[in-house]
Structures are given as C-alpha cells and as structure tokens.
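[step 3/7] fold_predict: job queued, chain A
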Amino acid sequence: MKGALMSVSDKLLLRKRAIIETVNDELKNIAQVEHSRHRSFDNFLVNLPGGIAAYC
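[step 4/7] structure written:
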C-alpha cells in the first residue's frame, strides 16, 4: 500500500475503529460472546445481552 497523507476525518475514523475492535475482542475473549454475522441490528442487540447473561 502506498504511503499517502490522511485527512483528519480518516484519522478520527481509524481511532474509533480501534476502540470498537478492542471492545469486540474483550467481549469475545472474556465474556465468550461468539461472533456471528447478523442480518439485522435487532438480532445483534438480542445476542449481545444473551452472551453477557450467560457469562454472568
């Protein structure tokens, strides 16, 4: 990949992505929430508390 100057908005998005990936990694490793490809946001919201409740 070529080295190119990044815009400020791209840098902010990369920072947000790093935080999101860190949270997802913690959920998968500690709470053992399985990664699945949800077809809707509602299914994601149902799976997440279910995994956390199973961990507790």
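[step 5/7] annotate
The helical segments are 8-29, 41-55.
The radius of gyration is 15 Å.
exit 0
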